[in-house]
Amino acid sequence: MEILVYRQGGAKVEEGFTVDQLPDLLQDNTAIIWVDMEAPTEADENVLLDVFHFHPLTVEDCRENRHYPKVEEFPGYLYLIVHGVRADTSPEHFNTIELDAFLGANYVITYHHDSFRSINNIKQLLHTSPVTCQRGSAFLLYQILDQIVDYYSPVLDDFDERIDSLEDNIFTLKRPNNQILLEIMELKRGVLRLRRISTKQMDILHRLSRGEFPLIPQNMLPFFRDIYDHLVRVTDLAESYRDLISGSLEAYLSVVSNRLNEIMKVLTIFSAIMLPLTFIAGVYGMNFDNMPELHSRYGYYAVWALMIVVGVGMLGFFWRRGWIGGSEQEKPEG
């Protein structure tokens, strides 16, 4: 647990406080308190219950790590769950990490089981300048949420590049490739999770930005609306990516079907050419005595010549029809 305190009029953010000092700090209305709990222990959870007197169900929600984003209002504080992007995430394996946050009149509490880049960035910012805390606890929460949402942008760029690469691979496909199909399904799952998370977080920011909660002052609403606008963009892009991936799946199936049709066309043309040749060979393969051609001196060569002419003629016919070697050419008028 890390406790950071900014006192009104102070030149810097103070650190090094203990849990025993928290009750006195909370009584100081001129202080803005940030309690960050990373990989919290049972003792940290007791602080939430005994010092801040949060509802036991909110503490139980904090303990679990499988909740969708939400915001709930309780007497004297807000409880939020948001999701940030993991540092090692990728379009094929899109994962998020959960952040539980409490907002009070003069405090912000962040509770998370994994390291958050956005949390670390805000701490570094506070070590440089206390401006983030000077505008109150709501502005501190805004900065944290803004950093979390900003990390969605690189993921969107990765999705865009990966989908473009996937489309190129599909249209240069020579034969069915299960690896491409697997990539399509993984991307689809990642986009669906991105859309699901961003949609719910967009709803949270919409509530925070429209003045629904008294703990967020009116002058802070434009900042939360800015985060909301970013999440609208994320959600819209996730929706478009879902359509693109669905189109990629249809394109893959279409390309595979076209390749199969090409193979079937070749086999069909081969069978069509062999059919009359087989008929000719069958006719002259009969062992009837009254078949003048069987006793002809040049009958064998004549049959071969007939079969070659038929085969070449059928190939020429197929070519002129555009069934092999390109599309059928329109004959000029006149």
Mean residue pLDDT: 84
Number of strands: 6
Query: What's the main sheet like?
Result: 6 strands, mixed
**Low-pLDDT stretches:** 327-334
User: Helix proportion of residues, in percent?
Assistant: 55-70%
Rounded to the nearest angstrom, the distance between the terminal CA atoms is 90 Å
Give the spatial strand order of the biggest sheet: 1-2-6-5-4-3
Shape by Cα distribution: rod-shaped
Strand content: 5-15%
Count the helices. How many?
Answer: 10
Write out key terms for the chains shown:
334 residues; alpha+beta; 10 helices; 13% strand; rod-shaped
Summed up:
With 334 residues, this protein is of the alpha+beta class. Helices cover 57% and strands 13% of the residues. It is rod-shaped.
Report on this structure:
The chain is of the alpha+beta class. Helices cover 57% and strands 13% of the residues. It has 10 helices and 6 strands; from the N terminus they run βαβααββββααααααα. It has helices at residues 22-27, 42-50, 56-63, 117-128, 131-134, 137-150, 152-171, 178-209, 221-283, 299-320; strands spanning 2-7, 31-38, 70-74, 77-85, 96-103, 107-112. Strands 1-2-6-5-4-3 form a 6-stranded mixed beta sheet, with helices on both faces. Strand 5 and strand 6 (107-112) form a beta hairpin. The model is unreliable at 327-334 (pLDDT under 50).
